[in-house]
Amino acid sequence: MKIVIIGGVAGGATAAARIRRLDEKAEIVIFERSGYISYANCGLPYYIGGVIEDKEDLTLQTPESFGRRFRVDARVRHEVTDISPERKSVTVRNLQTGEVFSESYDKLLLSPGAGPVIPDYAEGKEEYFFTLRTVEDTFRIREYMEERQPKNAVIIGGGFIGLELAENLRMQGVDVTILQRSRQLLNILDSDMASFLHAKCRANGVQVVFGVNVTDIQKNTVYTDRMSPIKTDMMILAIGVTPENTLAKKAGLALGSKGAIAVNDKMETSVSDIYAVGDAVEIRHFITKNKAVITLAGPANKQGRIAADNICGLENHYRGSLGSSVIKIFDMTVATTGLNEKAARAAGLDYEKIVLSPSSHAGYYPDAKVMTMKIFYEKKTLRLLGAQIVGSDGVDKRIDVLATAIFAGLSADALQDLDLAYAPPYSSAKDPVNMAGFIIDNIENGIMKQFHYEDIEMLRKRNDVTLLDTRTVGEYTRGHAEGFIHIPVDNLRERLHELDPQKPVYVMCQSGLRSYIATRILTQNGFDAYNFSGGYRFYQSITSDKAASEKAFPCGMEK
């Protein structure tokens, strides 16, 4: 059997190695357009920032090492220009010599990846900006920085690549401005959770401008619809990627959403003996079962293995993706899995959400860090739908536990029963994931009722409710939500007479724990009480971010 693989990075390289492990006699040929195979795509920004010092560390395999280990004929700088399903052959151009030739196949695997989105205003102006997708892109940026020593940079786009580049450029002493069309960075987050990310970027000298549309670029100048032309030493486009479908379209393969290659759960395309994997394909979201395009390395590698199994006669099926992801921004970790609130609402799901702020490990052990967790579940079934966590230590651990729970089909209240490892340097006896389960169990059993940030403005307008802050005097004095009166939780029992028992009481504290205790005191004394989800810390982050976002302009210039 002869297998031709188009694209030798995540999915393609994984598939080649798996095929060889399953079939020692198969002939395997990889054609890769760039000069490298099996490289660490996600590590590219860290070479620019100097975290990864040796460029050789970016490549996991070379064509030579891959050939020695797996007897795979990996040819770099070879571009496949056409596929002929009828003749079961591909047309290939050697980009070094210009030679054009035909290569036959028994099975064909497409792993072409995705390319950076280039908007109309940037077409034909490649000399003015950088993108970051390949090893060659990385070397160009690194060389430019070493030669030109730029003092400032504008990054257009605030997704994964834009943020990682912002961090790594700041580490090199470059002043960075991010221009973002939407009202937040990292759109996989909900805007309330993104507020912590925005604050972290600002605290580290990254200027973020929201709600701005770039209209044109020229050499060292960016033009927008909101402000004067922005002068810059360096310009990077990072506004997203689009599936590479040129070959699939020419060959008549069925395409799906965003032009991605349509495949079934065996990674088979609409044409016999042609498979496709990675950033170029349309898959199903694990929760909604809707078609989705998820451009992440983890799913690409899994799909490569599944395609290889089916090519070699094994039965293997891709069960869909949760889109689990994690990103480091300075000393902050941001992680997500499953649906966010926007997606849950768009899917028409009747969901509930909780927000909590537990510590990364036992509070009495040094250097415990607070994280903020937001978790969604379906009201009727208690099916877990998704989670977002922002913090530092231990965020990756908790998001992986939650991703596993979702994949395993655990109910939301079952999180309280998970038997998770505990020692003071690593966790608490009640792990943050367990704590989420306790909160959900309290809600579902009617022990606790809650309200959310978006409810506060409406509550302020009502005369038939009491808004209560139960933090300490010092905390309240340093800042509190407008309209909230103050009674510390430890004094609440003695001061119940100050509250009108005919009015529902909406209670806030710093993180949600003391206010929960207060609601239990109030409820058992005849009051109708509600706990604020997330606490004042959450409220303050959202409101402060909204204020800061309104006056953010490049170079610190204010409105």
Quickly describe the structure.
With 559 residues, this protein is an alpha/beta fold. The strands form eight sheets. The chain has a five-stranded parallel sheet with strand order 3-2-1-7-18. It has a five-stranded antiparallel sheet with strand order 21-22-25-24-23, sandwiched between helices. The protein has a five-stranded parallel sheet with strand order 26-30-29-27-28.
Low-confidence stretches: 555-559
Annotation field: number of helices: 15
Structure classification: alpha/beta
Provide the β-strand percentage band.
15-25%
CATH superfamily of the largest domain: FAD/NAD(P)-binding domain
- The helix content, as a percent range, equals 25-40%
What global shape is seen? globular
CATH 2nd-level architecture of the largest domain: 3-Layer(bba) Sandwich
Compute the gyration radius: what is it?
27 Å
CATH topology of the largest domain: FAD/NAD(P)-binding domain
Domains, number: 4
What's the CATH class of the largest domain, please?
Alpha Beta
Q: Alpha-carbon distance between the termini?
A: 66 Å
Find the count of extended strands (DSSP E, 2+ residues): 30
Largest sheet: 5 strands, parallel
Adjacency order of strands in the biggest sheet: 3-2-1-7-18
Describe it.
The chain has 559 residues and is α/β, with parallel strands linked by helices. It has four domains: 2-113 and 242-311, 3-Layer(bba) Sandwich (FAD/NAD(P)-binding domain); 120-181 and 189-239, FAD/NAD(P)-binding domain (3-Layer(bba) Sandwich); 331-444, 3-Layer(bba) Sandwich (FAD/NAD(P)-binding domain), CATH 3.50.50; 450-546, Rhodanese-like domain (Oxidized Rhodanese, domain 1, 3-Layer(aba) Sandwich). Helices cover 28% and strands 24% of the residues. The strands form eight sheets. The protein has a five-stranded parallel β-sheet. It has a five-stranded antiparallel β-sheet with strand order 21-22-25-24-23, with helices on both faces. Strand 1 (2-6), helix 1 (10-22) and strand 2 form a beta-alpha-beta unit. Helix 1 (10-22) packs parallel to helix 8 and helix 6 (191-203) packs across helix 15. The protein is globular, with a radius of gyration of 27 Å. The N and C termini lie far apart (66 Å). Residues 555-559 have low confidence and may be disordered.
